[in-house]
Amino acid sequence: MDYNFREIEKKWQKYWQENDTYKVDVDSEKPKFYVLDMFPYPSGAGLHVGHPLGYIASDIYSRYKRMKGFNVLHPMGYDAYGLPAEQYAIQTGQHPAITTEKNIKRYREQLDKIGFSYDWSREVRTCDPKYYHWTQWAFLQMFGHYYDKATQKAEPIEKLIAAFEANGSADINAAGTEEFEFTATEWKAMSEKDQQNVLMNFRMAYLADTMVNWCPALGTVLANDEVKEGLSVRGGHPVEQKNMKQWLLRVSAYAPRLLDGLDTVDWSDSLKEVQRNWIGRSEGAEMKFCVKDSDVEMDIFTTRADTVFGVTFMVLAPESELVQQLTTSEQKEAVDAYLEETKKRTERERLTEVKRVSGVFSGSYAVNPLTKEEIPIWISDYVLAGYGTGAIMAVPGHDSRDFAFAKHFNLPIIQVVVPSGEEATDPATWEDSKDSKEGVMINSGFLNGMNVPDAIEKTKEYINEENIGKVKVNYRLRDAIFSRQRYWGEPFPIYFKDGVAYPLTEDQLPLELPEIDKYLPTESGEPPLGRAKEWKTKDGYPLELSTMPGFAGSSAYYLRYMDPKNDEELVSEEANSYWQDVDLYIGGTEHATGHLVYSRFWNKFLFDLKKVCKDEPFRKLVNQGMIQGRSNFVYRVKGTNQFVSLNLRKEYDTTPIHVDVNMVSNDILDTEAFKNWNPEYKDAEFVLEDGKYICGWAVEKMSKSMFNVVNPDVIVEDYGADTLRLYEMFLGPLEAHKPWDTNGIDGVHKFLRKLWRLFYDASGNVNVSDEKATAEELKTLHKTIKKVEDDILRFSFNTSVSAFMICVNELSSLKCNKKEVLEGFIGILAPFAPHICEELWKVLGNEGSITEAEFPVLNEDYLKENNFTYPVSFNGKMRFKLELPVDMDRAEIEKTVLENEASQRWLDGKTPKKVIIVPKKIINVVI
RNA sequence: GCCCGGAUGGUGGAAUUGGUAGACACGCAGGACUUAAAAUCCUGUGGCCAUUGCGGCCGUGUGGGUUCAAGUCCCACUCCGGGUACCA
Fold it and tell me: Which window residues (318-347, chain A) lie with Cβ within 7 Å of strand B?
């Protein structure tokens, strides 16, 4: 019988489904292991071969762990809310729920064909009311809590109210947007509305004014991605910066804990580094600068307090509240014009266009608190309102952006730090600022002669003593904007009474997404939910019109998988205390700063509420690389319908044209398929080389427009799921970005057929022997067990595939058909290629599924070697090999080597200076 | 600009802790089997020189350095990919 992968794969997929092979439950008898994939957004295009890369890796690991005796939780679901479905709905009127359902069905079919070991009974969908019930619930908890900096955790808002009633704001140490001061009496005298406004300032989920990209023509808010050069990508309408009330999550309150938690998780150093940079802790000083002829004070934050003698001007962010107060009447016109100009630029543009220097003088002067000098206050968009205090002291001598600004506007530059190994020079001659943190202070009064770190310390002390500021730790992590003016997302369980936001009670959850007539904003510019009929509480109060963003549903899905059908709570204590946290999380790096920060925040919040038992949700995290597309080209002779093969094209004047990679095999074009591809090419003529049309190629993004999208079902149809699984792993290291190239897939498929032939004879009959295996056969098997297990544990699946190939090649050469060896081999291969191994497991006479078998145990005894073949080098160059007993001592090795005939040739009569012997590694003779 | 990756044959890649560079596979070339094809098997395959044999020299993006020994460590640079919130 031949290796009939189509039949085998269908048969075992059916078996697994009928026998609930992958269903898991809490089982206190077994240790748990939780393997999670980042769940996909079910797009209309279906899965391409890039998606399963991480899923295959995690599946191999899950199956391995299961064979090692663990109770493995390995679930899958869908991140089902998202813009594409809504965009499609706007264009076609088709309800996003319908397209989403359709896409999910297609995804499921594709996933099922690859043979994953998911427990589908635990599937979650973020758009299912039974699921988003708990997203809304978590939001209500955030609304009802604040962050207490004293206890370093979330506390009920009632605790804050009690404190206000007892002592006013006096004892409060809570994370808030603004600072308040009031007495208990004043608090009690406040109106309900004023009290609620104060509380809003402290809630973990709160409403506040934020700058957004507002597109008046589309009546909607746009993401940075959707804006290019001040115009909307869709439609090309003008976009402006607009202040709007939005819900935010106080992620910044958790910045210190999000930073510290990174030390406890097993993630790559680069990923941790990216998160650390994102959280961005910086120690510095907040300083007060008085404004001349005014009682206005400017607070600025700086990490380089030591350079305060080099300050020659101040800069305000255009959005700063101080701008209006500090603009003089003479400058008003110029400032207004500038503000109007910056309104058109998105934050992204302000960030990338570093070389474009712009700004305007406010007309006011500040007084340097140390030198008492008067310095001009400018306004420029290189200072952002959202970070620090929205105002800076500019030190053009030692900050490159300040330097560029000073040069552009002809402002003075003073050198206050002389970098180590340099002399003081005239700043007028400089090409750039001297940002170094090493050097000696000059022109700096009492700091003169100190090195930079000492000067920073000294200045901080001085600032404290003189009461002109305070030492402060600043984080760049911002609160997350949590509302979207969209339809296809979770509704907020919030209603408004007299303009004040109030929460729905928990028994009113889930608040279901209403039906609307069109998926567009209302005529008056309200979000789509403004179209919903009866979108109000039963008492007639209007409900919130925004919906939640994509990351709402994905922030706690890993908890829901633990107990997906629970209608009473997000996750039961029993399920949570058994499954605890994700042991292995596999997904793309693109989530390094978004999802992975938000879900850690979300988890820590729930941890504070004692709803979950672990402070960090993802113990180990592996990033799979992106699979890029490999495009193919044909070369059309200009002005004709003639196509020239790759290596002949230089003789013609040609245009390269993308051709669908599915019509190309090993870069050879199926010319008939090409003719039928497009009516335009029906009469195409070909100039062939060696009777073939060879295509050119390039690595590009995998996309429809490049015709380089490869669909996994096509590969499964042609080669089988086991081949696809092995080939995706064989392609290269899991973490590396690599192009998809079907050219090598035959090798992997051939390997499986070769394996099959170890079990069957030439006439197709099972031919397996019960004889005792030879030492050589056992050595081959056990060296493979060792290598593969080692590789699985370090996620080096590409090298395990070659180890499998080497093993089968060796067993084929040995003509080994011993059951003992073959059974061991399919045991280690089963996590990678489960279908063929299930079948062969049965061929060997076993009952049931190989997933229940134990992973083969390594026996080191079979690997013992008496001799080692040493590479012998002379001056580091390998010259010949010499087999020596492993127990030979150094002196004897040296003697044997030097006496060797080949050595005599290389020594050429000289005495070696040194002989380096590394046992079981190398011998190097230094002459 | 800043942050994080990466660069090894014609191609994907291997070399896990500084110790035989190119495992494994694709492709290519030659051969066996076959009426033929497919399938399968065997041999060769980094470059240059020599090829009568032993072989020799060069070689992991570029230029330096450390070391008995460097793809691997250090310094400087080039190019490519990804992220990005000018974070003072």
Answer: 347
